[in-house]
Amino acid sequence: MSNVQKVAVVTGAASGIGRGIAERFAEDGAKVVIADLDEPTAQEVASSIGENAVAVACNVTDEASVEAAVGLAVERFGRLDVMVNNAGILQISPVVETDVNDWDRMFNVNVRGMFLGCKAAAKRLIEQDEGGVIINAASGAGRHGVGMLSHYCATKACAISLTQSLALELAPHKIRVNAYAPGHIMTPMWDDIWEPYAQRVGKTVEEIKEIFLATIPWGRYGEPSDVAPGISWLCTDDAAYITGQTIGINGGEWLH
Fold it and tell me: Tell me, what CATH number does 18's domain have?
């Protein structure tokens, strides 16, 4: 069964992978709440989608804000079927230079924000008593370490573990919990990564891009449109027996 008539909340949906997921959901017939800290851009995305989308300012580190996003889905569209906890941040920083405030911010957005999204969605889905789907944003960096990304890698390992635990806990309610682990997907976030990473390792941005590209067997960087179809499928009834899994979407870059 497709996602027609389902209702989804996607955090971090104003750009990048989140936007791609929201747009794919809408194409598949779902109604979508575009939840993002950048409300003006979220409004633009919702307007571009049309009547099946609504935007809301959402700070994923704030419980009331996350609950309001879920509440808007119910208020506007009558229910909740899918929660995609996509919002996240990344920072290049050697461990000896990582300020504790940067460490805390990384965990606040990537882990606390995901936990709050899972909690708010689970409460609503349990109340509805009709099952549902929660999808979390992990990363290949949650499965293996990457230098100068220790705090980011740690948050994504948390995402994988949280997904597995909640899949077991929520299974009696027929709520499936999975995660996606994208590889090098070209989004605006990378614009803030190339230069500082290149400077740290003493190479040019173009050299870094070539080095990373060489690790991808598929031979090209990914796009949000490469990720979104898989996420949409995970939310359909065709994936009804899949829970607790972290699905790599990376052109073969990581095979575990």
Answer: 3.40.50.720
Q: Which residues contact 170 (CB under 8 A, 6 or more apart)?
A: 122, 125, 126, 134, 176, 177
**Domain of residue 180, residue span:** 7-187+223-249
Domain tally for the chain? Answer: 1
Task: Let me know if 197 is a catalytic residue.
Answer: no
Opening angle at CA 80, ends 186 and 127, nearest 5: 135
Question: How many secondary structure helices (H) and strands (E) does the chain include?
Answer: 9, 7
Residue for token pair 């944003």: 137
**pLDDT tens by residue, 72-91:** 999 999 999 999 999 999 99
pTM over 0.90: yes
Residue 195 sits at φ, ψ, to 5 deg, of -65, -50
Q: What is the pLDDT of residues 225-237, one digit of tens each?
A: 999 999 999 999 9
Q: Is residue 109 part of a domain?
A: yes
Q: What is the bridge-based pairing of β-strands 175-182 and 246-249?
A: parallel
Q: Of these residues, 152, 180, 197, 241, which one is catalytic?
A: 152
Is residue 103 one of the residues assigned to a domain? yes
Comparing CA positions, the residue from 174, 181, 227 lying closest to residue 23 is: 227
- The tokens for 136 are 């979390």
Q: Burial of 223 by CB count in 10 Å (0-12 exposed, 13-18 middle, 19+ buried)?
A: middle
Backbone φ and ψ for 137, nearest 5 degrees, come out as -85, 110
In a domain, 2, yes or no: no
Cα–Cα distance measured from residue 150 to residue 83, given in angstroms and rounded to the nearest whole number: 27
Listed residue (88, 92, 95) closest to 196, CA to CA: 92
